[in-house]
Amino acid sequence: MRDDNDTRNLPEDTSIGEPTDLAHRTGTGLPATRRELARVSGDMLDHLDKIRIEGLEVFANHGVYPAENELGQKFAVSAVLFTDTRRAGETDDLASSIDYGAVCHTIDAHLRSHTFKLIEAVAESLAARLLAEYPRIVAVRLRIEKPWAPIGLPLTSVSVEIERTR
């Protein structure tokens, strides 16, 4: 559920003349403006909290071969949602966090309602949707596994893992 007030009450930019690289919330490592929020570095991700979803099973129709698109197959999706959970932890209020149940249903619906040839495209499209739909997600790491990949050899799974930030 998107909360239009969920821009963390950040101003659009810093004061005129103030260096934007210095605009960070004290003690959190998070940007102080929405413009800075768009430029999240790897160092910032190390300081964020993480909500993990592991091995969500979705039956969908993705693959290079026509039979994969017609018959479908199982995919396992794991996600790391980078966010700040402090307020949710202090208030015990779901509205201050990311509803991981809703995220799971979004993942399921997205994979079922689209058809891609490559799991790389599945991951890219899903990352864009999660970042657009859940403003509290600062960055997302996705792993899309295809345990029944038709390669003609025994294997546990083939997967793609990506990380995308705002």
Descriptive notes:
- There is one protein chain.
- By secondary structure, the chain is an alpha+beta fold.
- Helix content is 30%, strand content 23%.
- The protein is built from six helices and four strands; from the N terminus they run ααβαβαααββ.
- It has helices at residues 34-37, 42-46, 66-71, 86-91, 100-113, 119-133, and strands at 49-60, 73-83, 139-146, 158-165.
- It has a four-stranded antiparallel beta sheet.
- α5 crosses α6 (119-133).
- It is elongated.
Structure characteristics:
single chain, 166 residues, alpha+beta, four-stranded antiparallel sheet, 6 helices, 4 strands, disordered N terminus
Question: Outline of this structure?
Answer:
The protein has 166 residues and is of the alpha+beta class. Helices cover 30% and strands 23% of the residues.
Task: Describe the main β-sheet briefly.
Answer: 4 strands, antiparallel
**Principal-axes shape call:** elongated
Low-confidence stretches: 1-14, 22-28
Overall pLDDT level: 84
Quaternary structure annotation: single chain
Beta-sheet strand percentage? Answer: 15-25%
Residue share in helices?
25-40%
Structural class call reads alpha+beta
Give the strand order of the largest sheet, numbering strands 1, 2, ... along the chain: 1-2-3-4
> What is the string of SSEs from the N terminus onward?
HHEHEHHHEE
Cα distance, first to last residue?
A: 18 Å
Please provide the count of β strands. 4
Topology, element by element:
Layout: H1 34-37, H2 42-46, E1 49-60, H3 66-71, E2 73-83, H4 86-91, H5 100-113, H6 119-133, E3 139-146, E4 158-165
Antiparallel strand pairs: 1-2, 2-3, 3-4
Helix pairs in contact: 5-6
